[in-house]
Write a structure and sequence with these properties.
alpha/beta; Rossmann fold; 6-stranded parallel β-sheet; 17 helices; globular; binds nicotinamide-adenine-dinucleotide; binds uridine-5'-diphosphate-glucuronic acid
């Protein structure tokens, strides 16, 4: 069993640390965020991720998992170091490597000879060389091992991956990294670092393209009077297409697809290739959000020719996570507010504590640091969007209810009760979550996506 250091305790770092500890390795996980580490050392985690708190607790109890502040701490003991720090989007669309470079610079003099540094963050093609140059140590090898987990099912995805990709020019280093996963039953793709880095971006870009395609087919279905649900059924049975990633929605978002597709366009540009197809996918996704916002406004206009209230159900970029980064729901709520709609929103992950802290932040200084509050919530408040902890109160006197995230609880609400409190019975179901026939029977003007 190996001695590992995981740098970054976010979605990928914390999952990697907890799972590697569960696989029997000795893991020290570090972060520069003192509050995050303090919480972890008190047995709590700061993100919503199924099973993660329990796995972290199990790791700490077994003695296999510990948390420290700062990448430098205890890194000198590690045989293998995983880099799991952010690679956010820069203003020109490219990936920001500064967190990687900062982390690597701080650990470079401390690493023991023969140690391997693994890039698990999503990094542009050629980044293995950047890390090697930053390390400037001939006795340390750098390996690419991209991560394919999804938020909301991070542990399952880590433990049951469709494949494990390892990119290295050194066979021995590749074998050492691969052996960390020896208890996991998955195909192993070993390749050179550039190909491994390309596999990660190409996979995310392909999935984003698939989603934009299905969203476009949903729009087409509306135009020609077809039903997207049946179209998906008929397409998905073709094994070359499959059912995965065929659900239309209000557009794709999250902390990765938007930044990674932009970064791939930039990577291609730098390599002299104009990736027109992917540029088209990105603009199709933006247009789709406009399309959804307009559809909700149209419904509101039918319900009320004058001022209208829209109740937004769901703010996270998808269900089972509290992540609001690049969430289509947030963008659509902001567009509705810009169209002078009164917008009140509910999301199951917004707690009284978050709301209290948000009000404090906003009262103190609209431009001040938001601390643990996700900046998307501050943007909503600044735009005049109200947040509520009660979904039924959100719908009260509303002219349209807009479901924008596929939280399961939305299926089970008492829509007759909701209808009675609304100014007008109208539902925009941006995730095709509800049975239209039931809603129509209750007297709702119902509109889904592509049906
Ligand atoms: P995150 O923002 O949730 O977590 C990153 C953590 O790194 C933060 O807690 C931050 O404080 C910490 N950090 C920054 N600099 C540090 C340093 N010098 N030393 C120690 N800690 C430091 O990010 P994430 O979602 O885990 O993503 C990390 C990388 O993994 C990104 O490149 C992302 O594209 C990629 N990725 C993310 C997912 C996902 O689902 N979130 C999936 C696959 C790959
Ligand atoms: C995505 C990829 O699925 C992971 O493989 C990858 O590791 C990760 O990005 C990353 O690189 O960070 P994630 O962003 O967690 O994972 O979420 P997804 O489940 O892929 O959803 C992305 C977006 O597509 C969401 O807005 C979601 O609502 C939307 N989506 C997804 C649909 O609209 N329909 C679908 O059928 C599936």
């Amino acid at each position: 069993m190996a001695s590992l250091s995981v740098i970054g305790a976010g979605y990928v770092g914390l999952t990697t640390a907890a799972c590697m500890a569960d696989l029997g390795h000795k893991v020290v996980c570090s972060d520069i965020d003192r509050d995050k580490i303090s919480l972890l050392n008190h047995g709590q985690i700061s993100i919503v991720e199924e099973g993660l708190a329990e796995l972290v607790a199990k790791g700490r109890e077994s003695g296999n998992l510990s948390f420290v502040v700062g990448a430098e701490s205890e890194v000198d003991r590690a045989e293998i170091v995983f880099l799991c720090v952010p690679t956010p989007q820069r203003i020109d669309g490219s990936a920001d490597m500064s967190y990687i470079v900062a982390a690597v610079s701080s650990i470079a003099p401390l690493l023991k000879p023969g140690c391997i540094v693994v890039n698990k963050s999503t990094v542009p093609v050629g980044s293995t060389t950047v890390v090697e140059a930053t390390l400037s140590r001939g006795d340390i090898l750098v390996v690419s091992n991209p991560e394919f987990l999804r938020e909301g099912s991070a542990i399952y995805d880590f433990m049951h991956p469709d494949r494990i990709v390892i990119g290295s020019d050194d066979q021995g280093a590749a074998i050492r990294v691969a052996s960390l996963y020896s208890k996991i039953n998955a195909p192993l793709v070993t390749t050179d670092p550039s190909s491994a880095e390309t596999i990660k971006y190409a996979s995310n870009a392909f999935l984003a393209t698939k989603l934009s395609f299905v969203n476009a087919i949903a729009n087409l279905c509306e135009a020609v009077g077809a039903d997207i649900r049946d179209v998906i059924l008929g397409m998905g049975y073709d094994r070359r297409i499959g059912f995965e990633f065929l659900k239309p929605g209000p557009g794709w978002g999250g902390s990765c697809f938007p930044k990674d597709t932009q970064a791939l366009v930039k990577i291609a540009e730098e390599g002299g290739y104009d990736f027109k197809l992917l540029k088209g996918v990105l603009s199709a996704n933006n247009e789709h959000r406009d399309f959804v916002a307009k559809a909700i406004c149209d419904m509101a206009r039918v319900s009320s020719p004058g001022p209208a209230k829209v109740a937004v159900l769901g703010l996270t970029f998808k269900a089972n996570t509290d992540d609001l980064r690049e969430s289509p729901s947030i963008e659509i709520a902001l567009k509705l507010a810009k169209e002078n709609k009164k917008v009140v929103a509910y999301d199951p992950t917004i707690t009284p504590k978050i709301l209290g802290r948000l009000n404090q932040v906003v009262d103190q200084d609209m431009n001040g640091p938001a601390g643990s509050i996700q900046p998307e919530l501050v943007r909503l408040i600044e735009a005049g969007v109200e947040l509520s902890l009660d979904p039924y109160a959100v719908c009260d006197r509303a002219h349209v209810v807009a479901i924008l995230t596929e939280w399961d609880e939305f299926r089970w609400y008492d829509y007759d009760k909701i209808g009675k409190s609304m100014a007008s019975r109208a539902i925009f179901d941006g995730r095709n979550l509800l049975e239209s026939a039931n809603l129509k029977r209750l007297g709702f003007n119902y509109r889904g996506i592509g049906r």
